[in-house]
């Protein structure tokens, strides 16, 4: 993607099932667990730009020593700094980070604090090992305020309303209640069910009690991804399958998806079982993750992204008037590369049938180091032109340059950086192809698209209504959103869908193109988007497409989009959840 969109976090859980001597004898590694946990984090480092943390639990701790080791970092390169910190501890203390259970986390903050206290794993300390709780996760909830009010009514005070703090308190409260019951503690699955059944949002929760009991729980819709692997040496959980494959050198089929609503429970003796935890719900796994965020070295994701490129081919052929002889095909690095391969293969087949070839190459080159340097918004705007460079001499005068991007969210980088520099190559026309449909609605489950103002599709919608003198449609939706604000989340509907329904897709896409066109662009400009129908065919198991369709998987989603509309109409530039 050409834009800096924030995303969900990554988590890694590792339980060693053999004595430490086994790993030292078999692999020559005194710190086998730490090495594998660090590798699982490294293979997910795209999920951790703001912070990283790692906890190590000792199942048989010495009296006088903590039962866990914990390090966190919010350094500019947090994962590298975290591994260095843990490495120093390993050198200085022969027992540090040489326990049996590891819980790691990579934080990609969508909002909130960026200090160590906001980094996972979170800890609820207790002198009773079976009541000490370590928690890390990949989550965004829409109802933290409601949960906090419920906790306050039972006598709790929460110093923070961040999702992590609220979830930790909900879990510890359920744990306290479990031990307070006359019949005593029943099971960890029961504790998880009591707490998480009230969560509205997306989550993968991983954690451990001080006695060595560990768990991984995925939300009932399966919005956020989670995978697990087990053999006679380890049990491992991660947000991405390739992280486990790389750490333990196992084939794709050996790593299983954690089923939605299920809890993977690991007993103190290392036995792992899957148990029903949350009530069944329709599967709504996030498709945007497949399009953009998850690494394409997962075989299934790689195949889906290629299909996305393949599905765009008919639109590309129409956009160039069927003339492939003057087409030059390229992409915006780097996450669009696999979809580009699918599009290229299909167009080459079309051209071969006509006795022609397709010219292609990488014309846009991203300066990754400089991009990292200008991560803050204000400086990015000033220096946006320097993020990308171009390869000269490939595009010929009179060519139609087709560039594939995986998605278009705000459109600012496309308008301010990419299109002006591509225009220097002298194409007759530039066609921007998005492997995703237009992003119409805010997201509240992980990827940071929380306001309407920053969505170029919504800006284009407003442009159309203003030009046609029909802004009263938007004001009527605002009035309905205000009315519904007093209703429970489950009684609210997405009022913005009625506004989009008033505008034909072709009209909206044309307005988006006008929004993307920079001043002074010499080339013609067209924009094409994947259709929702083709998206669903390309990724049939990931039906979480609410940012394209407005069909939110939980009641809180409708409440969030209505709040976002109210905030926009009242010129309040704040998050809707």
Q: How does the SSE layout of this entry go?
A:
Blueprint: E1 10-16, H1 20-27, H2 32-42, E2 51-57, E3 68-73, H3 78-92, E4 101-107, E5 122-124, E6 133-141, H4 144-153, H5 163-180, H6 188-196, E7 201-209, E8 214-218, E9 227-230, E10 234-238, H7 241-248, E11 256-257, E12 262-266, E13 272-276, H8 287-293, H9 299-319, E14 327-331, H10 337-353, E15 359-360, E16 364-366, H11 368-373, H12 377-383, E17 388-390, E18 400-405, H13 412-423, E19 429-434, H14 456-467, H15 472-484, H16 496-500, H17 505-516, E20 524-529, H18 532-538, H19 546-549, H20 555-569
Parallel strand pairs: 14-15, 14-18, 18-19, 19-20
Antiparallel strand pairs: 1-4, 1-10, 2-3, 2-4, 5-6, 6-7, 7-8, 8-12, 9-10, 9-11, 12-13, 16-17
Helix pairs in contact: 2-7, 4-5, 5-6, 9-10, 14-17, 15-20
Point out poorly predicted stretches.
Answer: 371-375
- Which geometry do the CA atoms define? globular
Mean pLDDT: 90
The CATH topology of the largest domain is Rossmann fold
CATH architectural name of the largest domain = 3-Layer(aba) Sandwich
Helix content: 25-40%
CATH top level label of the largest domain:
Alpha Beta
Task: Please tell me how large the radius of gyration is.
Answer: 25 Å
Tell me what portion of residues adopts beta-strand conformation.
15-25%
Number of strands: 20
Number of helices: 20
The biggest beta sheet reads: 7 strands, antiparallel
SS-derived structural category: alpha+beta
Query: Span from first to last CA?
Result: 25 Å
How are strands sequenced across the largest beta sheet?
3-2-4-1-10-9-11
Number of domains: 2
């Amino acid at each position: 993607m050409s834009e800096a969109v924030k995303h969900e976090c990554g988590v890694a859980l590792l339980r060693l099932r053999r004595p430490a001597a086994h790993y030292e004898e078999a692999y020559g590694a005194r710190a086998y667990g730490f090495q594998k946990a660090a590798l699982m984090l490294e293979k997910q480092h795209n999920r951790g730009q703001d912070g990283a943390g790692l906890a190590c639990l000792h199942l048989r701790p010495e009296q006088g020593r903590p039962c866990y080791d914990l390090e966190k970092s919010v350094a500019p390169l947090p994962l590298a700094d975290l591994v260095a910190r843990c490495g120093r501890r390993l050198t200085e203390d022969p027992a540090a980070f040489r326990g049996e259970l590891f819980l790691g986390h990579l934080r990609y903050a969508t909002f909130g604090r960026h200090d160590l206290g906001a980094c996972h794993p979170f800890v609820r300390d207790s002198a009773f090992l079976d009541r000490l709780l370590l928690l890390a996760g990949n989550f965004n909830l829409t109802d933290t305020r409601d949960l906090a009010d419920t906790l306050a009514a039972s006598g709790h005070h929460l110093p923070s309303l961040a999702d992590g703090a609220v979830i930790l308190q909900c879990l510890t409260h359920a744990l306290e209640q479990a031990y307070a019951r006359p019949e005593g503690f029943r099971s960890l699955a029961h504790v998880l069910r009591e707490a998480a059944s009230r969560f509205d949002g997306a989550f993968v929760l991983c954690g451990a009690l001080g006695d060595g009991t560990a768990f991984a729980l995925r939300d009932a819709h399966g919005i956020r991804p989670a995978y697990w692997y087990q053999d006679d040496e380890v049990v491992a959980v991660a947000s991405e399958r390739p992280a486990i494959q790389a750490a333990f050198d196992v084939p794709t089929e050996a790593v299983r998806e954690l089923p939605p609503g299920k809890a993977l429970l690991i007993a103190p003796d290392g036995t792992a079982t899957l148990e029903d935890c949350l009530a069944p719900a329709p599967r709504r796994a996030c498709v945007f993750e497949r399009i953009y965020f998850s690494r394409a070295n997962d075989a299934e994701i790689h195949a889906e992204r290629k299909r996305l490129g393949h599905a765009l081919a008919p639109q590309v052929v129409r956009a160039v008037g069927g003339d492939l002889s003057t087409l030059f095909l390229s992409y915006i690095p780097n996450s669009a590369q696999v979809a580009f391969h699918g599009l290229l293969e299909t167009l080459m087949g079309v051209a071969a049938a006509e006795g022609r070839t397709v010219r292609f190459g990488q014309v846009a080159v991203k300066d990754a180091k400089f991009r990292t340097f200008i991560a803050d918004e204000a400086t990015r705007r000033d220096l946006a032109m320097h993020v990308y460079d171009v390869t000269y001499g490939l595009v010929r005068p009179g060519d139609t340059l087709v560039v594939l991007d995986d998605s278009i969210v705000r459109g600012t980088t496309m308008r301010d950086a990419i299109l002006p520099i591509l225009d220097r190559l002298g194409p007759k026309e530039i066609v921007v192809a998005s492997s995703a449909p237009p992003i119409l609605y805010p997201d509240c489950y992980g990827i940071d698209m929380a306001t309407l103002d920053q969505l170029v599709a919504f800006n284009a919608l407003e442009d159309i209504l203003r030009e046609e003198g029909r802004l009263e449609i938007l004001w009527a939706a605002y009035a309905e959103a205000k009315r519904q604000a007093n209703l429970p989340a489950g009684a609210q509907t997405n009022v913005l869908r009625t506004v989009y329904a008033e505008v034909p897709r072709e009209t909206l896409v044309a307005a988006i193109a006008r929004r993307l066109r920079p001043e002074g662009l010499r080339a013609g400009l067209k924009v094409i988007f994947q259709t929702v129908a083709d998206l669903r065919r390309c990724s049939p198991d990931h039906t979480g497409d609410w940012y394209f369709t407005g069909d939110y998987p939980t009641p809180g989603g409708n409440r969030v989009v209505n709040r976002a509309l109210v905030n926009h109409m009242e010129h309040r530039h704040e998050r809707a959840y």
